[in-house]
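OP here, attaching both records as promised.
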Amino acid sequence: MNYKEKFFEGADFKDKEFMALMPKYYPVKYKKYIDEETRLFKKTVKGADRILEAGVGIGRLVPILSPLVKEFIGIDNAKLMLKRAKDVAKDFSNAKIIYGNLEKMGKLYPKNYFDYSLCIWNTLGNVKKEEQILKELAKVTSRGIIITVYKKGTIKDRENWYKTVGIKIKKINPENEIFYSLSGLKSKSYSVEDITEIAKKAQLKIKKVVNLNGVILYVELSKIS
């Protein structure tokens, strides 16, 4: 297990609940963001044939979104995440959780297979090349890619969040607002301008941006015609 994998395999939580991915443990400000995010997800994907969650984590969205669509696919490459997500998905016949790398999405599914792809929370902030991941998702997505990321200018809120859910921070890059935990998590933040530039490199454009309770950016991306 390499350094980065320690966080995703539960190094901060041992045999306890994975608090970082469970909103019931979040500070009030983040709980409100989750409520707003969930409402937007449900409104956007309702009635879709197929949706993909890239970086499904412990499967928090499976019971929320699976009943609204014909097929829900969640993908991750962390064993702990996959195990827990699969346990959740057992109760939903149209939900499937698979192992895979986001960098190879274009080889895993046919062109435009999904109506929507979701890449949420800090998934985008943990990859080496954001534009490459978005390009791969665009290959298999027809209607839109939805991302949520930490909003720049919220360092204090993020410090409080990590403290509340039990993640120990090793260092912070204040200039770029990137957090690094002792367990290997890299937590990056973005401005709308940052997302616009990354999207452009991936031949995508911003369709919609929502500031979720002042701490998270919700962004819907579509292909450039």
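Record two, same layout:
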Amino acid sequence: MNTKIITETARKTLDGTMSFPEVVGQLLAAEVEYYHVDYVGMRKTFYSADGDAVVTPINYEGLPPVAADFDAAALRADILDSQRNNQPYRDFTRRAMEAGTQGYFAFLRGKRVTYFGRQGEQHTEWFPNAQTAPFTEQAIRAAYAKTKTGVDFPRLIRDLKALGIVSYDHLLETGSNIFHGKGGQSVSLSNMGPSVQVNPQPNLESLKKYISMHQSGQTNYPTLCGQAGEAGVEKWTSDLLAMTCTYFDKSGRKMHVELIPDGEYKK
């Protein structure tokens, strides 16, 4: 790797005198494959395909500590402000830390950036105009907009699979989803359902009753979320390859596994 180009690019990034597309071009020319930004250690580490590394400091003063809770919506707004309004990198850094981002990996050849929260939360952002992104927030939300009751769920799964999604987690207390793709990428989206209180005492029989009601079209998605929380469900994971939906309680124990049909639910 060309250490001089890397250190100069890192300096201009902090100074706000080089745009992100210019940064990517310079680092690729310096044979950087990816780099890691560490907001806890306040440093950047640049890696080559051969495993060589160059470390540069993030020498901003007066930055806040990394927030304990990861706010994907605030992070996304921060990213958009930089992309659309040329926000200074120092302001981007401050807002990312306030949103609970402990750091991120920028994969230059993979054309994506993956951000991490302190509890392992993730959000993946594709480079602007990257043609390899298999699914986007807009496409996901469009698929969900067509889902009215549980009768529509098998079709939703087919639509998500067509986007390249292989699984997703729904977190009831935050109302957010984490979608996972074939290439290992993941996207965290907020407001994918209501934020509901989760009963610490799981009730399997109630859960099965609520699922059956939803599958028959008696309830909509927000109602199911509230009922599942009442039955002690903290999250569910839909595996689009195994075609299963697995429900977990607050202790992380598996409560129930429901098969997802390829067609409609049986009457």
